[in-house]
Amino acid sequence: MDVGLVTLLLFGFMMLGLISGLSISFVLGSIGVLFTVFLWGPHALGVIPSLIFGKAMSSFGLIAIPLFILMGAILQESGMADGLFGAIHVWGGRLKGGLAVAAVLVCTLFAAMTGIGGTGTVTMGLIALPAMLSRNYDKKLALGCIAAGGALGILIPPSIIMIIYGMITQVSVGKLYAGGILPGLLLSSLYIIYILILCKMRPEFGPIHVTQEKMTLKKKIFATKSVIPALTLILAVLGSIFGGVCTPTEGAAIGAAGSLVCMALYGGLNWPAFQRASLTALRFTAMVMWIIFGAYAFATVYTALGAPDFIQRVVKAMPIGYWGVFILIQTLYFLLGMLLDPGAIVMITAPITMSIVSAMGYDETWFGVIFVMNMQMAYISPPFGYNLFYIKSISPDTPIRDIYVAIIPFIIIQAVGLTIVMLWPEIALWLPSLFFGK
């Protein structure tokens, strides 16, 4: 059967399945099984489990996913966010928009400890949102900065999405981690600059809270002790990976153990909290694994047909050139991100896009970082951005329309950040070349 026709059928059935509301893992797995039987007969079905358990599940790097998820779940239960937010607020409390800036900074720190997009949003939504609203902050600014700040979790290492992307595309996870640091800090800085400028122009959006007690330098330094365990954990995990001491998987084990130490230091180590964290980690890990199973079944059919070569020929024949193809891919990613989970998008598109990366000569690490930046936009893009629903669950009285409006300035800022990294690839490539060489 013609490869082009099968490609259209595969993706047509996939879209029908997703529109029907079925689970992405079930849709991909079912299509993979049905098309295997249709094209090669029932005897070929053995290829799918042999690939899943012989290649995917035997990958040492896959172990990092449950470990980093457990690390994030423990930190979410530890009470660390309260201490971090309080410490940063002490230093910036008399700054217009200081609470919003503190929320973004804490989300940035949580991103560097958890690798999950929703952790920072949920914790800051529970802690920072009431604090801002009680001080008459503009509600849209409060909602937007928390949703956008939390999305940094999938860009700044240890990002779970980067592990999945690296495993599927065979791009070094260490290089992706190094490549995500500066773009993540760039976006965080752009959010803070926007907040400060907005509150300078419209002081009523982020009024200064005048406390009865003046905070002396001694008290500020004392409050800063809450930040030390968090920074130590970040340095232990990322420093061990980039220093060549351990692999990302071994770094994940260090992070999981270190998160328990942090939990104890912040006074949150107890059996109910640990049980909740473990169950959360189990649910997230199971979700990711099922998506991987379904995606491998789907990708097996697609690759066996020789579709990657077909895609390369099609792309090379397109008259839009290097940047035209790149922008087209990012546009498609953005549209998919409005409807699907980033992990599912990796699984569905990786067999296609890696062929295009090879055909067009894009740097693999740079392309991967840009992809994750695009998925970060997906986390806050209407109508189905994950963080928007996290915010809705935290603030149920807020109409979803208000949340959509609140996030628009931050989507624009993310698009600006993505464009900057597109035009200056060194932002994403300097640290990988420094730590790992060319």
Quick gist of this model?
With 438 residues, this protein is an all-alpha fold. Helices cover 78% and strands 0% of the residues. Helix 18 (364-379) runs antiparallel to helix 20.
Notes on the protein architecture:
This protein has helices at residues 3-19, 24-40, 47-56, 64-78, 80-92, 98-114, 117-134, 139-150, 160-169, 173-201, 217-223, 227-242, 248-265, 271-304, 307-317, 321-337, 342-360, 364-379, 386-394, 400-423, 426-436. The chain is mainly α. The chain has one domain (59-269, 305-436). Helix 4 (64-78) runs parallel beside helix 13 (248-265), helix 12 (227-242) runs antiparallel to helix 13 and helix 16 packs antiparallel against helix 17 (342-360). The longest helix has 34 residues, at 271-304. The mean pLDDT is 84.
The SS-based structural class is mainly alpha
Tell me the helix content: over 70%
- Written as H for each helix and E for each strand, in order along the chain, the element string is HHHHHHHHHHHHHHHHHHHHH
Output the number of helix runs: 21
| Broad shape | globular
Q: Total number of β-strand segments?
A: 0
How many structural units, i.e. domains? Answer: 1
Mean residue pLDDT: 84
**N- to C-terminal separation?**
42 Å
Which residues sit in consecutive blocks of at least 5 with pLDDT less than 50? none
Q: State the oligomer.
A: single chain
> What proportion strand?
under 5%
Major sheet: none
Radius of gyration: 22 Å
